[in-house]
Design brief:
Distance between the termini: 39 Å
Largest sheet: 8 strands, parallel, barrel
Radius of gyration: 21 Å
Structural class: alpha/beta
Helix content: 25-40%
CATH superfamily: Aldolase class I
Strand order of the largest sheet: 1-4-5-8-9-10-11-12
Shape: globular
Strand content: 15-25%
Number of helices: 12
Number of domains: 1
């Protein structure tokens, strides 16, 4: 009978025998510099309204968002992703391009307070329209998504004017990346990059986000422009279109249920930095299980984020960014 002890055969367990050796041979290492912390910003001062379905995540006034950004930067987090909660909504989401809106003011304030922290701004209309859709509604009640592209472009230019390092179009409307690239270049912002939500699935994991951003559709859903969760080849097609239109970075959203897609995009587009968005539902599940003692939250989170990096993500967008950075600093 074969006996590894007797034969001296190759035994992988030798490299797991101590924490020191396990750390030495670890293949995948998390770096807080690759984390991006999403922040929801709104009007007011001193506002920290916790989102009930996302414990530990808040709607923040600009002054509070700056504090969050400073703390994250102090922990080594590489960037923040800003979402706006407007005071006023209308059918065309006109507030999205207002220079004095919360996202634009937060961008200016964070760049002034923490200039080395990357500021990324989400570009979409769903938070700003009174119907919660990413584009316009025609007189016949049908979505007219492409008609809203100029509004997306104006929003991106406004974010660039405020000092955003990257703009992140998230609507999945055909042609939005190309329209924004052309608009930024024409407005003198050819130095501002595009971090495209290139592969965004119509997922059930976005529920808590819609509580946070107050962006649930008043009717219908987004399955006509976001991807079918069953499709993988289509992800490659979407990413290729965005690269051709000028995307500097690509994103897969959600992350955990789509590790196969992360790997396929990584392999197909090796010259483009790739982000994976660990979304609100994925965060909420870990938070809930951790709070009930069903999981060791810290270990489960770091294992999850490691899986995203191992699958090929260079950048990890996660509501756990600051906590995970703190855990890494303290030692896994």
């Amino acid at each position: 009978m074969f006996s590894p002890h007797a034969s001296g055969a190759d035994r992988p367990q030798r490299l797991r025998a101590s924490a020191a050796v396990r750390g030495l041979v670890r293949e995948t290492r998390l770096d807080p510099a690759a984390f991006v912390l999403p922040l929801f910003v709104r009007d007011g001062e001193g506002v920290r309204d916790e989102i009930s379905s996302m414990p530990g995540v808040f709607q923040l006034s600009v002054d509070e968002a700056v504090k969050e950004a400073q703390e994250a930067a102090g922990l080594g987090v590489g960037g923040v992703l800003l979402f706006g909660i407007p005071a006023h909504k209308d059918a065309e989401g006109s507030a999205a391009s207002g220079d004095d809106e919360a996202v634009q003011r937060a961008t200016r304030a964070i760049k002034e307070a923490v200039p080395d922290l990357a500021v990324i701004t989400d570009v979409c209309l769903c938070e700003y329209t009174d119907h919660g859709h990413c584009g316009f509604i025609g007189t016949d009640g049908e979505l007219q998504l492409e008609a809203s592209l100029p509004q997306h472009v104006e929003a991106a230019i406004s974010h660039a004017r405020a000092g955003a390092d990257l703009v992140a179009p998230s609507s999945m409307i055909d042609g939005v990346v190309g329209a924004i690239r052309q608009g930024l270049d024409s407005a003198g912002f050819d130095h501002v990059g595009i971090f495209s939500y290139a592969v965004k699935y119509a997922s059930a994991f976005y529920g808590p986000f819609r509580d946070a951003a107050d962006s649930a559709p008043a009717f219908g859903d987004r399955r006509t422009h976001q991807m079918d969760p069953a499709n993988a080849r289509e992800a490659l097609r979407e990413a290729a279109l965005d690269v051709a239109q000028g995307a500097d970075m690509l994103m897969v959203k959600p992350a955990v249920a789509y590790l196969d897609i992360v790997r396929q995009i990584r392999d197909a587009f090796p010259d483009r930095p790739l982000g994976a968005y660990h979304v609100s539902g994925e965060y909420a599940m870990l938070k809930a299980a951790g709070a009930r003692g069903w999981l060791d939250e810290r270990r489960a989170v770091l294992e999850t984020l490691t899986s995203l990096h191992r699958a090929g993500a260079d950048v990890i967008i996660t509501y756990y960014a600051a906590e995970a950075a703190r855990w890494l600093k303290d030692g896994e």
